[in-house]
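Appendix B, example 12.
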Amino acid sequence: MERVGNTRIDPASGFCTSNSIFYSKRNPLPLPPNHSLDTTTFISSHAHHGNIAFIDASTGLHFTYQQLWLSVDAVASSLSDTGIRKGHVVLLLSPNSLYFPIVCLAVISLGAIITTTNPLNTSREIAKQISDSKPIIAFTTTPLLPKLRAASPNLPIILMDSSPDSDSSPTLEKMMKRKEGYSSGRVRERVNQDDTATLLYSSGTTGPSKGVISSHRNLIAMVEIVLGRFSEQQTFICTVPMFHVYGLAVFATGLLASGSTVVVLSNYEMHDMMSSIEKFRATYLPIVPPILVAMLNNADAIKSKYDLSSLRTVLCGGAPLSKEVTEGFVHNYPNVTILQGYGLTESCGVGASTDSLEESRRYGTAGLLSPSTQAMIVHIETEKPLPVNRTGELWLRGPTIMKGYFSNEEATASTLNSEGWLRTGDVCYFDSDGFLFIVDRLKELIKYKGYQVPPAELEALLLTHPAILDAAVIPYPDMEAGQYPMAYVVRKAGSSISEKQVMDFVAGQVAPYKKVRKVAFISSIPKNPSGKILRKDLIKLATSKL
């Protein structure tokens, strides 16, 4: 046993017998001591050696780091002129682009708060987020403008691209062209590490979407963790959505501190991704499991068509990889190392990771705890801490853990306790070497191609249909998507509503990734005495014929 102060920590597992806490075996984070520090200033203080920061994969348009930081400063000054101040919320609705990070970094440099939303969301879903977060202004693109106008007709909008009718309206391009030195009117308020930087929406452990409040300290710690994983500058391919914590953490903030180059694809398409790796000699590819499985299943065709000799690393987040997938990938792409990562929106996308192929070959693991992160495995009913190789709910504590949920004290209190522990909702255990294994989810979220789909939201929508008496939505396993939403529906007496009618009803009101893709009719929904849906019974019923 090693001793840290009065605590005895097992060097193999990181477990402390005196307080039942698992400690990270990674080197601790070098967090900056300066309290008055914003994320943008912290990132821009790192050397970039004149490299290119971002390249648009489709057009070849690029920004050097010098151009990036000049643009960020110009946009921040322009926002200040429009009255944006510390604490104001700014909405960003956009696909991946070179301009996405510029808006994010400019907003948070002022002490204002960036909230992002999925471009696939419907106007109804966007309106709900606007109603909750109350943004002062929004950034979007011309194709998404009608959706945003429908969601909030009176919200001031800045276009991130040019269009025939944008001559007289404010655009990001005009903001970026602001002349150097014309920033004397900029209001620079003191921004502290404790101030809120981002408001990303997550379904948390259960229920409807909630705004996750992350501070500048949270983001700075996340950037330090990202930096610790890269020993040298890389060229990354960005297909992961920047609105999501995975994309925001890695591409819109984290990697910039390393001076690396990010090749941006507006959305995922296998040919575009592979041809971009070849064209830009990319070395690093962060993806989600369904894309990795697609690369494995189509390996022969991919290798015969594209030159992937530059690719050195694939980082996969979202779900642990099986032995078959890991070894199949290694066999087909022998020069590429698979790394994995585990995290939540509530933890700035970090929590555990594998940092070598040897670690990834602990099949099914999510990896070792991230630097400066602590964990407990807690008995699900008694909340009593458990030791090594015992299964319970994973609790996390550390510098990346959120401040709480926006305007939702009840949800915050049920997820974050007074000692700073985040209840992840994941059922896990640590092995004797400190590797984390995710066994199941307490959360009821459905993971469709990396997107989170809350069943409660779809159930509430189904119950508004005049022909539906009751409904339950469960995850249905799928090789390509991981899971998709399946609905069990109880028809009202005399109703003959069909599977297609149910699916069309939902599809007309939600983003494509939330669509119900399978329906079964049932006489009653199984529930416990308190009325909670017994989803496990329905999952067993649905999968018994597989």
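Residues 451-543 form a domain with the GMP Synthetase; Chain A, domain 3 fold (CATH 3.30.300.30). The chain is about 30% helix and 25% strand.
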